[in-house]
Amino acid sequence: MEIVNCIIDWVAIILGLYVVIPRLKSLYEFIYKCFIMRQHDLKQRYDSGGSYVLVTGCTSGIGEEMAHRFAKEGFNVVLLSRNLDKLKQVASDIKTKSNPNVEIRIV
């Protein structure tokens, strides 16, 4: 009887691993893609010499931060928003804080 219990235990372990291992693999792939995978170099990938990035809603929040980040990467920036005064302020902030060498166009 003890041998039968030992066999049942081993079968349960093998079946458990059969179920758990694919789940662990998918969890590993998720963590790898989200947190470990190397980020692409946007400048190398998309810049064909003098490329522009269009950023909408750039006078505050995420849009403003993205405009600063693209400028730090060396992309020329086209700023698009409804408020001309705020656009001029963001353009001057980008020139002073992020990268003075980028071209900035205001729309």
What would your notes on this structure say?
- 64% of the residues lie in helices and 12% in strands.
- The chain folds into two domains: 1-37; 42-106, NAD(P)-binding Rossmann-like Domain (Rossmann fold, 3-Layer(aba) Sandwich).
- It has a three-stranded parallel β-sheet with strand order 1-2-3, covered by helices on one side.
- The protein has 107 residues and is an alpha/beta fold.
- It has helices spanning 2-36, 42-46, 61-73, 84-98, and strands at 52-56, 76-80, 104-106.
- Strand 2 (76-80), helix 4 and strand 3 form a beta-alpha-beta unit.
- Helix 3 packs parallel to helix 4.
- It has four helices and three strands, in the order H-H-E-H-E-H-E.
- The chain starts with a helix and ends with a strand.
- The model has no long low-confidence stretch (mean pLDDT 85).
Key words describing this protein structure:
single chain, rod-shaped, Rossmann fold, alpha/beta, 107 residues
